[in-house]
Design a protein that fits this description.
88% helix; mainly alpha; extended; 0% strand
Length: 88
């Protein structure tokens, strides 16, 4: 196709980013309704929880270079899996 491996990987990552944006956006939207109906939370409280978690995510992404100096890739992966497992 006349495309380098680097460009193919870049294109694949861009497509992955586009495809997951919709699912994450619908989770945030439907999560509010789910929290209201199943947990009795008001829309304001559920939205506050979602936005606080979003801010934590942004802070962790912004501090990734600092974390990269302190931890190895394997340690960061294990840490991320641990956080996900605790959340489940």
């Amino acid at each position: 196709f006349g495309i380098t491996v680097y460009n193919a990987c870049l294109l694949g990552c861009m497509l992955l980013n586009v495809s997951t944006k919709g699912s994450i956006g619908s989770f945030e939207t439907m999560g509010i309704s789910f929290a209201e109906s199943h947990f009795g939370l008001s829309a304001a409280v559920a939205g506050t929880i979602v936005s606080i978690n979003g801010m934590v995510g942004v802070a962790s992404l912004l501090s990734m270079s600092f974390l990269g100096r302190l931890l190895t890739d394997i340690q960061m992966i294990i840490g991320g899996i641990t956080v996900c497992a605790v959340g489940i």
